[in-house]
């Protein structure tokens, strides 16, 4: 599809590079198994005020698993608002949130185009639900706020060349990063919120090393585990002890509620860890 | 009766009446105030550049550029274009000489370099997503595209994928001891997608974008590719070779600020403001950009663009070449 | 999102609804029990050109049609060259999630609208969560079935369309048949012309003609105060404290489950929170700060208004803030997964539809 407004490449389709050892199972190096304890998240770096011309902005970097000091997930968020709505829109007693999540073309293994695709819109819906619970919306009638998250680098490790299904678990990690960075940007913009909301991910994984017994870990990286059975991403408000957004996906081995409850609890724990980083960063900005 | 005077803090004054604000700053009323721009720089002073390369792990080459408040991220991804997918592909016959012109034509005709600039990331309040690319974004992309092809930084030979890997320095020798001319078959090209993302925008996007492109291309490493007859596809090995980039063209832009906002050209004073920021760009209609390359020892001008007014003439252009040279030295040092 | 459509209820009506739904037991506007579904009309086999189709009409007038079509596609990529003897066995086959393409069409919305993208992502997630579905589409090492599910909402979206679309998809998948394979091994596939010999995608028991396995179904559950309410109508959603979309599937029964009582064992496949329209509703004004009632404080400036806003006056509607407590959410999920509960009834009801 030729986009008239951008420089399009060659009319024929280009193929991303196929590596020789892609199908050779013996060569595919599995990343070293998870070295962090099951209840520790990766090092997170958060900074606000990256875009001075916006009302608020923030930048998040998560360290890459297995390579300390090298960052994996990189997100940037800008908040514009509260600004007045166009005259043609209906009266709204609450602030109108519009979230946009966009992957940069160089963010993931497969180059993404410039038009927003359904996964990005889905992430935007989740982000909107997560933030709507945190913002005090009725203080700003007839206004709108735009929250734009640009994903500069996704979480997938470049070395793993297989595993299509892992893209879905990466979306959860990305979503939790988006929630945390958007919350920091909202605080930087000075929009009233009931509490700081941070995202956390917990997963039920099965590793051959543990004789196939499933266990729950937080902040999972798909390449560190043999199989991820189920995962959930939680957006949590620590002071009020409330969840604003829950996204759970996977195949629970039984209908036992205990495993599900434990998974959500661990997700809340992950979110609390992220919240600590968030509060520290905002404290530096404000104080 | 004395009129009550209104006093505003500086940022409010800047928003309400930007032109007098900048004018007052450039030629102050009293002798004691220093003359300078609103951002504290001298008219001939550009912002310092911070370049950070190889930060992205999914791109073959990347660079993050920070000049003042402007932040640009450039990622270069290489993808394979098999010859079969090129409509109207014309393989070069053995008798045809390969000239610089024909090489550049090959690069351009097959669209092997694809730069794109994304401004709609919320980098400034006027660039919000949800709308198709604005005129500014399209203009910037086109300027980068034409400069990329015009400067000849990338040689099409580096992007060709041959049927067999040609090892450096090895020549096939047949029984007569003569060097055998191999009939190498071209199976594909590397296409370089150069994507620029503006994280923060504070004026002078072209300079920052161009520096990012050059830095990212210099950082690019292409995998070594060959044709796999079994799979009938181009396969790459894990080792990579750096892309050869010729020269180091650097862009230098300035805006012309007129004393009289609306008036006859030629009336009043003017100032040349190097590396304008967002406020200055909105106030100036005339812009001049010069791209120079001093890497070969002598200064070569790769491009001159001037639009919007009539203040800058031949004399000023010559003087501007000196300024551009200075900028080249700064940027060249930052790239090391 | 579809839930953000303006709900034209006044603050007084919202407060009334909320109060009546918070009672024990809750009094719903149409007098239903909390876990009673509205009657629906379902039929299959309405589109002769498809491999499977279904149509469901809900009692509030919303209607959806789903058509399932299948095409044989060549498996590309490295998977085509690998595998071997063990690929023939069921458990070593790998299905890919790209073999199922789902599109949702809602009248009045563009197909790349975020609400539609959310719905289609949710439905696709539920279908592919256990990984077993894509395996059914495997033909041989070089070819597979590509399934196209087209979900159309025919009526305008009066209420949140997720449960309707999910039930219709479930029914259409139950009715889907794929032609019987006549070729052997890895040769180019060719199929039996006889449609009557075509097996169902979800195999059925020959004697009782009940399905042996079932596709998942997504339910919309909401909570108001301490009450959990299923199949909420539009008005009820407008006063919800929290709403969840829960996708459940069937689990294989193990020996020690047999004695746990009637009903089938259910498996949790995915959960998503739905942003209820209650957050966009206009707030009511308590008498104390209403100038029409002679309140002096109404003409004061901002700080007073802010303080008044913070107090909750009973009977005055205020949009919910914050989120939901984890225990409340867990209770919702538990109720949905209950053996012999709502999900069971829905699955039984759909199973009873005649697959003409």
UniProtKB/TrEMBL annotation, chain A:
Keywords from the named record: Cytoplasm, Exosome, Nucleus, RNA-binding, rRNA processing
Organism: Cercophora newfieldiana
GO CC annotations on file: cytoplasmic exosome (RNase complex); nuclear exosome (RNase complex); nucleolus
Main location: cytoplasm
GO BP: nuclear mRNA surveillance; poly(A)-dependent snoRNA 3'-end processing; rRNA catabolic process; rRNA processing; U4 snRNA 3'-end processing
Exoribonuclease phosphorolytic domain location: 41-191
InterPro entries: ExoRNase_PH_dom1, ExoRNase_PH_dom2_sf, PNPase/RNase_PH_dom_sf, Ribosomal_Su5_D2-typ_SF, RNase_PH
Similarity comment: family membership: Belongs to the RNase PH family.
Cited CDD domains: RNase_PH_MTR3
Protein name per Swiss-Prot or TrEMBL: 3' exoribonuclease family, domain 1-domain-containing protein
Subcellular location: Cytoplasm; Nucleus
Stretch list, region Disordered: 1-39
Automatic annotation (TrEMBL), chain B:
GO MF, any single term: mRNA 3'-UTR AU-rich region binding
GO biological process, one term: nuclear polyadenylation-dependent rRNA catabolic process
Gene Ontology terms: cellular component: cytoplasmic exosome (RNase complex); nuclear exosome (RNase complex); nucleolus; ribosome
Keyword Ribosomal protein: yes
InterPro entries the UniProt entry points to: ExoRNase_PH_dom1, ExoRNase_PH_dom2_sf, Exosome_comp_Rrp42_subfam, PNPase/RNase_PH_dom_sf, Ribosomal_Su5_D2-typ_SF
Residue intervals of the Exoribonuclease phosphorolytic domain: 45-223
Segments forming a coiled coil: none
Keyword field: Cytoplasm, Exosome, Nucleus, Ribonucleoprotein, Ribosomal protein, RNA-binding, rRNA processing
UniProt subcellular location: Cytoplasm; Nucleus, Nucleolus
Annotated SUPFAM superfamilies: Ribonuclease PH domain 2-like, Ribosomal protein S5 domain 2-like
Family: Belongs to the RNase PH family.
Protein name per its UniProtKB record: Ribosomal RNA-processing protein 43
Organism from which the protein derives: Cercophora newfieldiana
Automatic annotation (TrEMBL), chain C:
Chain intervals for the UniProt region annotation (Disordered): 76-95
UniProt cross-references to InterPro entries, sorted A to Z: Exosome_comp_Rrp42_subfam (IPR050590), PNPase/RNase_PH_dom_sf (IPR027408), Ribosomal_Su5_D2-typ_SF (IPR020568)
Single annotated GO MF: mRNA 3'-UTR AU-rich region binding
Highest taxon listed in the record's lineage: Eukaryota
Keywords noted in UniProt: Cytoplasm, Exosome, Ribonucleoprotein, Ribosomal protein
Family: Belongs to the RNase PH family.
The protein's name in its UniProt record: Ribosomal RNA-processing protein 42
